[in-house]
Amino acid sequence: MKIIVIGATGTIGNAVVNKLKEHHEVIKVGSKSGDYQLDITSPEEIEKMFKSIVNVDAVVSATGSASFKKLEEMTPELNSVAVQSKLLGQINLVLIGQHYLNTNGSFTLTTGVMKDDPIVHGASAAMANGGVASFVKSAAIELKNGIRINAVSPNIVEQSLDKYGSFFAGFTPVPVDRVANAYIKSIEGAQTGQNYNIY
Ligand SMILES: NC(=O)c1ccc[n+]([C@@H]2O[C@H](COP(=O)([O-])OP(=O)(O)OC[C@H]3O[C@@H](n4cnc5c(N)ncnc54)[C@H](OP(=O)(O)O)[C@@H]3O)[C@@H](O)[C@H]2O)c1
């Protein structure tokens, strides 16, 4: 398969790429890194990517930013980071990409544990995660041409503890390899409308 991985140089994306590249052609995408550069917050750049990279069977999104702030410090502007990036960026990949993907293709998006297991500072990210998860469940029944869609909801991964561990006291981190397997299941399996909780 020919597979676009957005966020390919990130902690999760890199683990997904390492598994996929054994059996597939992988195009690595980031805003500054990778084989192709794209800002996921720009619908114009998403359209341009699908026009430039043709004959694609699967799209993975392992990216999406959010502001981590106490609720009392969260502002509409800070909240819009998650809206534009993690929520609309990922959803726009599907809205635009559905018209370009090969028959029987697939989308795999990324949410996260905070939608089910709240943490302080996590409301904005949780909002985006919940929106993406609901979109995936609903979009699955309407996508045409055998195109499937799933989301992966990782717990805090062991490899990210240095960066985010202080937010996740009492959580049991998961190895990134386990998280990456869920993307493989989504791409190589037959399921659709699923949200894989890797907790
Ligand atoms: N790590 C965890 O423990 C964990 C747990 C649950 C959920 N998640 C979610 O999983 C996703 C990936 O997390 P991660 O920790 O692997 O991220 P990461 O290590 O920070 O990597 C982010 C990746 O996204 C790319 N990127 C950043 N901004 C972009 C943009 N505007 N447009 C396109 N690509 C962009 C980066 O490449 P460039 O630098 O080239 O832009 C990089 O490849 C996020 O949505 C995160 O919330 C992570």
TrEMBL record:
Keywords, comma-separated and alphabetical: Oxidoreductase
Cited CDD domains: Lin1944_like_SDR_c
Q: Which InterPro entries match?
A: NAD(P)-bd_dom_sf (IPR036291), SDR_DHRS6-like (IPR051122), SDR_fam (IPR002347)
> Which Gene Ontology molecular function entries are recorded, alphabetically?
oxidoreductase activity
> NCBIfam families this protein is in?
PRK07578.1 (NF005754)
Say which family it is in: Belongs to the short-chain dehydrogenases/reductases (SDR) family.
Q: Which superkingdom, per the lineage?
A: Bacteria
The residue range of the signal peptide is none
- What is this protein identified as? NAD(P)-dependent dehydrogenase, short-chain alcohol dehydrogenase family
SUPFAM superfamilies per the record? Answer: NAD(P)-binding Rossmann-fold domains (SSF51735)
